[in-house]
Amino acid sequence: LLQSGWHSRLAGLKTLLFNVSRAVTRDVLITFSPKEGPSRLNSTEKGKAGKIHFPREIFQSLGSQTVRVVVTVLNIQQLGMFKEVNQTGQVLDNTVLGITVGESSISGLQEPVQITFPHGELPQGVTPRCVFWDASKGQAGGWRSSGCVTQPGDKGTVCSCDHLTFFTLLLNPALDSSTARALLAVATAGCGVAVAFSIFTVAFCIFVRCRFRLEETVRTNLGLHLNLVGSLLLLNLAFLLNTGLAGRASPSTCRVLGGLTHYCLLCCFTWMALEGCQLYILFVKVLGTYIHHYLAKLCLLGWGFPALVVGVAGALGSYGEYSIQTMDHQAIAHLCWITSKYLLVHYITNCGYFGLIFLFNMAVFGVVTHKSCSLQGTGAVQGHRKPWKVALVAAGLFCLLGATWALAFLTYGISSAAVLYLFTILNSLQGLFIFIWLVVLYYPKTKESTGSLSYIIKHDKTTTASQ
């Protein structure tokens, strides 16, 4: 079609053809735009046009040949081409760029071809990805990204690819409308279950502390668990209230609700960190760890520090309506949360804060696991401990220290839909998991002390003192 000149009759197709040979001693620069098509450019890129940077490596391999370079800009909406089955992302400006040099296939370039796709600010939650068309994918072909590196920028995205073919920039929403609604339904149902079992857990902890005579260490542990479950209860209630009122609440109410939700989340993270600190004190610093009014001081820190952070964030005006949007700027979910303008506050107070807590708690979990295995190997811990109960204790500690929240760091891009579901289910049911763990671990210990956590700690203290 290109050689016979028929391309001029096809709407949405613009082509630039030129001849090159080995005499080319420098890189070749071409600009393109969906409206004006491609053109040669010998100076620095100007305006809002895209840019193609051909490396010299392509032309140095030509020898004495003179070949034709074809750059084609396609509007796939008008042409009805390059349609992938079940495609979730959207092609930027419906534009596909075809690049060929000569009649041979070019791949495995050491210095990649660089294609700059210009665009403005992308909608929140949209991830650009450099892709090329693979006709062998599926039955009708599809987009692939192997061999291409994506470098997003404020005014455009640079695609560095080691081969020549048809390229485009695919805009992948972190959530599509159906996935967002399904996740919201799962989270709402899970939070409802979590609220019920959080109430059961609080009642159970109070019952055990009041009904049985327990060692001071066990009472402190139960007090810690009680506060953590209480923060989870408040977080679930705040989320249910948030999803129910968001989109209908006044701006001032939404700011208060966003701050409340953020406060409850930070309280959960802080109490997870305090659980890790308590484990460290019990299993590592087993001697000389008495602290006057220990639990009261933990409560001051666990409930007071998040209030300080939220107060500073609120003074900055960080809270308000936050919406998850599709690529055509249609909102699919509303929340009262940290607004898009202050996402740095979210990254610091939530992502950064939890990241530090997660690293510390996983280090403590590793130390506790190693020490427990060492005690069992030396015969320090007596009694018949069933393997399923040991596994449950380990899983409970893992959940108690907030490991399930780390799945949030894996929810990046459209391929993370399964991880999003897993993250939503596990964390909305965290109250249920802790309730089962506490009942199995603590209630039998009111009748027997052999094999209990306090027994291990007591024996470890005795062993350390004798050494």
From TrEMBL:
GO terms for molecular function: G protein-coupled receptor activity. One of its GO terms (biological process) is cell surface receptor signaling pathway. InterPro entries: GAIN_B (IPR057244), GAIN_dom_sf (IPR046338), GPCR_2-like_7TM (IPR017981), GPCR_2_secretin-like (IPR000832), GPR1/GPR3/GPR5 (IPR003910), GPS (IPR000203). Residues 187-442 form the G-protein coupled receptors family 2 profile domain. PROSITE patterns: G_PROTEIN_RECEP_F2_4 (PS50261), GAIN_B (PS50221). Pfam families: 7tm_2, GPS. One of its GO terms (cellular component) is plasma membrane. Residues 30-177 form the GAIN-B domain. It is found in: Cell membrane. It is a multi-pass membrane protein. The keyword Transmembrane helix applies. Keywords: Cell membrane, Disulfide bond, G-protein coupled receptor, Glycoprotein, Membrane, Receptor, Signal, Transducer, Transmembrane, Transmembrane helix. The chain crosses the membrane at residues 182-210, 222-240, 260-283, 295-319, 347-369, 390-412, 418-443. This is AGRG3 protein. It comes from Quiscalus mexicanus.
